[in-house]
Structures
1.
Amino acid sequence: AQSLTAVRSTKGQAYARSVARLGLQAAEALDYAHRAGIVHRDIKPANLLLDAHGNLWITDFGLAQFYTETGVTRSGDMLGTLRYMSPEQASGRAVVLDQRTDVYSLGVTLYELLTLERALPGETHEQLLYQHGYGEPRPPRSIDKTIPRELEVILVKAIGKDPADRYQSAGALAEDLRRFLHDEPILARPPSMWDKTIKWTRRHRSLALSAVTVLLLAAVGLLVSTLLIAREQAKTRAAYVGERDRAIEASQQRTRAERGLKHARDIVDFLSRVAADELADKPSSADVRREMLEASLDYYQGFIDEYKDQPAIGGELAAARARVANILGELSAFDEFSRASTRASLLFEPSVGEALGFSADQLHAVQQAAGDVLDKVADPRDLRTMPSAQKREIYTALAGHIETTLEQSLSPRQLIRLREISRQVRGPSAFSDPDIIEVLALTPDQKDAIRMVQTEFRASLRETFRQRGPGGVVGSNAPGGPPPTSGPGSPGSRSQPSVEETQLREQAVQEIVAQLTPSQEKTWSNLVGARFTGAVRYRERSFGYGGAGGGSRGRPGPRTSTPQPP
């Protein structure tokens, strides 16, 4: 021991690395035995022999057993050397001894070789048993500061009292020793303060339970005394507050009315500025704009009910509510117009004409009629400067004109089939149509779930367009992309949706249908009719209201831009 002490004090780091190399050889040898199914169960300094060439040998496998032998699960017998055996081995309880018991014994042996002190300093049988259950070896660096911190972390992990805290195999211990010798980062990490607290609690369960019990009793006592004091204070305060409230009740009512009015005006100003002005030129924000406006309607109605006895305030709130209702009416009218124009635009798709059974002459006549009505969509006036009520009238009139033209140009069967195809092509957006919502009798929860699917679908489309670049989406539907180089009917004004876009649309429809009841699902199947498999140059309008199709109409020749959504 004196010679080892001299070597350790003079060589420091070199001595620690020598110990690590010996530990690496022992760990590799144990790993080989473990992989063969053998547990040594008596690793200690006396069973580790070093030859003249510096090779380490593990001897005395007299207590070793195979994993499959019944002796591995112990029932109170104690085999091995108590100072070096693992806590579970020394406990005398019926436990399964696996390779981790050898990892512990090797760690304690290396600890003793590195520090030249016992990991468990007890001398008697009782002292060692107590230290196995409740004691912790001193940190190696508290004995010798020259011991590398990484090597200390490795040893502390190897001699963890709980098998789950140790290296799970001798191979893992060997790997960390090899990393240490090669100056690579080790895999083990030093225990945190929380880990140390948990381990201490496990070792001192009764003491920890007593401390928690005392703290709980103290907390309960403090809470009870606080409640008693608070109750007496509340009685005194209630008497005072009651008199004060009766004296200033009239003043508080006026203050509350003025505060409520100011708050209502602030909400009106905010919603009016954001929803009616700032979001008006951003079609992608249509859903947010509609939700803000609908919420404001409920808010105003609540204030109107509360201040119905104050005509001045109620009149101002009713006027603000009417303004918001007009904007929502404008949005609804635009949605109706957009759906109608989408159906008319589908008539320029050859696959749709074939599905409707048009002859060549009828197809030409229908397309001519549809083109004429779509040309009337162009409006030289700036709709954005019009009042909401006027824009609503324009959109409603345009939608009605389109529907009338379609009814006059198509047979009832063709008109029904066109609507079915339009719903299929529009996919998830069709579930926002008022007639669909009414026929399916959607519940509020179903509406919320459908709205969420639609939002995710539009976000996926935007991401698809972004990844494909400005050239991936041609025309007005491409955010940031160049405008069409020719008329709406020219090649390139619209492109065939990609397979990915089609899959996204079909997946979104499936997710929405999954939210429906069996009867609702059957109704939806009747609304969309037989599956339409024709090619349509239609893109989900992910940046418009309700997802209605936009872009070119398929009409030959240049046209002015269509009215923009409010």
2.
Amino acid sequence: MASSASRPNILWISLEDTSPRLGCYGDPVARTPNFDRLAAEGRRYPNTFCTAPVCAPSRFSVIMGIYAISAGAHHMRTNHRNRDTPEMIAPYEVVPPHYAKALPEYLRAAGYFCTNNAKTDYQFAPTATMWDECGREAHWRHRAPGQPFFAVFNCDMTHESGMWPRDDEQVKTDPAALTLPPYLPDTPKVRLALARHYDNIARDDDRAGELLGQLAEDGEYENTIVFVWSDHGEGLPRGKRWPYDHGTRVPMIVRMPGEKSPGTVDERLVSLIDLAPSVLSLCAQPIPAHLQGQPFIGPEACPRSVAFASRDRYDEAYDMVRAARDGRYRYVRNCRPELPYLIWVPYRNRHPAMQELYRLHLEGALNEPQSLLMADRRPIEELYDTQADPWNIHNIAHDPAHAPALARLRDAVDQWRHEVGDLGDEPETEMVERFWPGHKQPVTAAPILLAHDADHWAQEAINAGTLKSPAMIQLHSSTQGASIAWAVGEEEPAHWRLYTGPIRLDRGATMIRAKAVRYGYASSAVTMGKFEVE
């Protein structure tokens, strides 16, 4: 299983809450030598956008390759306890379509060693079939010799909460050197919060440098395709949680071994929904028909004309916004125009910049761009010319000069919602009842073990007795959409294998342990069988 051009290693360096404030994006304040090195050796994609401007819905779409609104993963989060809605007290997990599997499960089936260190946030608990290792110690170094790997390292220093004050803080970035979005008040408190963010980006860059050094130490740097991306934009007001460019535009760097045009800036439109099919294509694996993205790199790359995004319940407050971005325009549809922009999200209100906005609003000291979030109603549609207005401040939805762009993106959103089956129209309580009837988590049916040899064909293991060589065991679960994890031995395994086909038995005694899982369901009980092969 040695790595080769058709089976390259893949390393994802995933950032949290990060807009393109990197040196390679032209930011003079950033201290990002490792990200800049990757961009110089590879390609930078400045027009990359997430599918939702908040963690869990975005990460669901990345790992599953389908839009959160298509599978009921669009609310942030499924494990949130809403104190004001008794019927929604208990958390739940999303149950994706039975035919949908996470990207690493497809790669494991192809022989890849798949690790995640360590954040998941998929709207359902990760299963034993998704990753070979998932946790703080997960690393490609634990794979078998020569085995290709898909390794994800989630750099979390840049999370929104990293902008809050700390008792022991020593900020290295000069707050006076920063450029603030024009809709934020220019106060020392806001500048200090953003300076903390720059420091945290530098820390994530240091972590990236450690990983690149480990690749080099292992002799794998020239065998590995490295992706750098963020789940959504930075955690500033009108950034994170909002489907404007500030909330959805993210860095994307791809460094491929043997890059023929290093340092390229590729202006094509990219969506994070495209990550899964891109990796499958680069690894010479078939792309399942249900995936809703398209490769943006590799032999099957094709152009994208529009990138879509959604916003729904975030923490306590329900909302519904749909958005689209083409090469020039940003379109936003507010399905609840009667709502103010700042519905109740207590976590967001802990941000120093948010507190400054509220304080100055009460004092009547905000200018027009800074007052945008304070409006008590929203327009039904918003349209922004991102070339002339990169911060999405001037709504031109009613400007006749831009009517063709408005009509085009309005139709694109309608078609997208229809094609992917937008579940935003369905009340969350009804959706959860479909996932977990009676608000009880379904349980995956335990696998059965079927023995095969010259005298036994698909006979349950408990009746098989002694088998003749050659012999094999087949595993089966009656739950539609279930995957099966298995291991050999008497003890609970440290690592479960993904079942992809009959297990050949060696001569002598072998203990097989197996459990079945379906995403969003509880795992089955473990089934065990001991086999004697003559």
